[in-house]
Structures are given as C-alpha cells and as structure tokens.
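Standup, Tuesday
Yesterday: got the pipeline producing structure tokens again.
Today: sanity-check two examples.
Blockers: none.

Example 1:
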Amino acid sequence: MRGCLAVLVLAAAFGVAVVWVAGPPVAAGIVTVGLGLTGFEAEDTAVTVVADPPLDLLGGRADELRIGASNAAFGGLTAATVDLVLVDVGIVERSAASVSGRLDGVVVGATDERLAVASIAFDGAADEADAVARVSAGAIEALAARAIESRVGTAPDGVRLVAPDRLTFTVAGVSAEARLAADDSGNLVAVGVPGSAGPIVLVAAESTAPFELNGLAVEGGQLVVRGTLDVEALVR
C-alpha cells in the first residue's frame, strides 16, 4: 500500500512539475491551433502565454496572452502586422478582461469598397476597446471618387480631404464639397454630394469587422476615425 501511495504521490508531483515547466508553451500551442480553427490565418504567428503560477493553466486561465503575427487575415480584415496583448484570459472560452495592441497595414471592407487603413490602435475592455484608426488621405479620396461616380453618374475631379471633416471636388466643372460622417448604422458616409438624394456610403459597417465608428476628423493629412473595437470577436 505504501509503495502504491508513493507512486501516486510521485506521479502527481511529476504532473505538477510538467505543468509548471511546460504549461505555458503547451498552452501557447493550444491557442495557436485555436486561432486557426476560428479562421485566423497568418504567414507567421507567435503566441506567448504568461501564468503565475503556471498551475492556473490547469483551469484554463492565464494572466496574459500575447499574439504577434504578420500578413494575417481574420474577422473580415487583413493586416500586415498584428500585435495583441490580452489580460486575464480564459483560454478555452477565448475571452479576456482587457486588451491593448495595434494592427498595421490593415485592409477592410467588402470587395467593391476596400479601404486601406494605415493603423488601428486600441486599449480597453476586450469586447469594447477604445480604438483609433488612421486612414491616408489618398485612400479616402480614391474611395470617395468611385462612390460619388457610382451614385451620380459623373466622375468627380480633384477630390481632396480637408479639415475638419470635408471632401472637396468638382463635378462637371462645378466646385462642391461633402461632409464625412457616421450614419445611424455606423457606416462611413459622404453627406451633401450634389446630385445625390441622400448620403453616399463609402464603407459599410457590416463589412468592416467588429468596429463601431463614433467620431472622425481630418488631422495631419489623415482621416482619424475613433470608435470601439470588439477584439474578442476577431479571434473568437
């Protein structure tokens, strides 16, 4: 009996030691596989799991989860680089209390309204993090020119993004301007385009990943869009 008990104690001690030493790398491997199953694809993905003590991993909990990737596609967008830090993580249920990070070289939108976003930085609750997206003037101007031509039937000339939230252009030789805004559905729209019966949707909310737009302004030659981002939904 004593011999059997000794074996059980040793086995338990060995199991604890394995989790203590190998737990974080094993958990990182599980997270990497899980990301793939959710549709996350990338050329290179690095996952780091931090748990203190490592035995918390037995319950599927981690203090911190770091995800880095390049040339990634997920949640209706693509990104040249991904850098996420999730805190108080439920590994199995893919949940987190808070998140911070940055996406660079992002492309969002449906096939006919793709928009290149220089960067999206975010910080806050994982399901509603404060986010700031920066879009180059050229990307917005090109998108607006196509959308205006599609709606009014005439290609605008000299489309320019100007502060605080305007697009200026000419249509059939007549100078005009429109205001950029978010409509009630969260779409990015151009308001007041001559010849258009209503706002022209530039980027539809349902095609842009779980980002809720709530403010925008032209700053430093870029369109700066502020809103909230559900980061959990991106990797769920």
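Example 2:
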Amino acid sequence: MRPDEIGHFFHYFEKFEGSFALIANSKEVKRAVVFVHGFGGDALGTWAQLQLIIDDETAGSEFASTDLFFFQYRSVWEHIESSTDRFLKFFECLIPKPDISHFSCSNPLLVESSGSESKTICALPAARHYEDVVLAGHSEGGVVIRQAIINRLARTSSKLLDCRLSLFAPAISGYAPSGLLGTLTKSPILGPILEAFLWASPAYQDLKKNEPGKDDFLTELRKKTQAAAQRSPRNALRANILWGRSDRIVTPKKYDFDQQEFVEQGHVGVCKPNRYYLKPLDWIK
C-alpha cells in the first residue's frame, strides 16, 4: 500500500485517559470532528464502526481530509459541570491549533516535525489549523457540549462558539425511561434497586427532572441556551439533532432554532453507522 493510500491512524492521548484521535494521512487538513459520548458510554464503543467506516469508500471523500477526536470522561460518576470542565480542557488543547505536546510519540514510522531547535516525532503529518469544526454528542454528551458553550459565551473569540453541532438523542430534556426500562424502574422489586443505583450517580442527579415548578440543571441550561440563541447568531447555539423513533431512554424535545429529524433507531444505535445505516456520517458531514 502506498503512503497516500493509508487512511486514518490511531493516536492515544496520555494526558486525557481513554481519549484518542484518528489522524488523517494528509498535510492539508482544516476540518475536525470532536465526539463526546453519553451516560455510561465510552470514547470507543459509543461510536463503534464509525472508526472503520470513515476509511471505507461508502463514507465518501470528506473524511479523507478530516481529523477525528474522541473524548473520554467520567459520564456516570461526576457532575456534568465537572465533565464540562474536562471537555473544555480537551477541546482547547486541540482547536483551532493543536498543542503539539499532546501528539509526541516514539513510533519511528511517523514523520518528523521540526521544532525551534530540536526534532521530535509527531503524530500529525503537518501543522494543523482547523477552520471547520463539528461537535458530535450522544445522549449526556449533548448536554456536556451545550454546557461548554454556555460557559464560553463571555469569550467571544472562542472557537467553540463557531463550531457546528450534530447531536444524537441528546439528553437535553432529561432522563425519562420508558418501554422495558421504564417498566423495570416501576417494578416494586427491581425499581427501588435500580433507582438507588442511578441516584448514586452525580450525572444522573443532573439529568433527572425535578418536581414540576422547580428549576433543575437542564431547565436552567435550556433557558440560557434559548436566551443566548436569540441574542447571537453563533453556530454553536443551534444544532442538528437526530432522534431515534424507538428511543426508550430520553424524550425528544422540540427547539425552535434546531433542525431535527427522526430515524428508525433506538437510543444506542442512533449514532452507530454501518454499511446499511449511514445517517450518522451524513449528519456529521
């Protein structure tokens, strides 16, 4: 295989445990996608198959010149505000211009990048400056992204505010189990056990709706997002949202300033592309 035929290659971030990148084998890359998984998910499994399909001809040519970053965080055992802080540190190390210190490695197969005085091995084929950035969030990941944007509104120069949002079944209206899961939570035997386990999670406490008439984390986030969207045309305040028709975990919520669509998928599968379901790739592109 010639060097120009090699697709994306894997790079692990030592300072962001579990997070990794798929780097395009191109020197001309100005586009990046940052993926944020949901409650109980992880950087790899949540987006399973996408990592392989991007180098398949069925994905189209757009991904050949796109770097992909997969963020890992403690989606169950930390409050969303804490997870948002972790995400912002990750994002700002990469966008718009990657911090080269996070891409150093000792693999002799990778190209050399010249520093001011000495040469180091760098996972990036060339210097990057991303002009087009997409934030892709699933479930709780959509909430983390929304909160990050609200936290950066005061910094009008932040690249985060110019990102495009592609959200998959975001938990922006909270956790509302239905179907089998809803039945289990209402079970006199299993319900209290399941509910006790979930309430031990700080993130679940943030996602759970409070009593009617009382503002909660998600209500406050929604109000701030709507108010900011009315004042500002920034890209990140509006999102493309893809819902699954058979979702039994979150409830779709209509936003006047968001584009929304439904597909024949459930909560877990809505963001997982395969050869017969390429909608997640189209939604990101």
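Quick observation on example 2: The longest strand covers residues 132-138. The mean pLDDT is 86.
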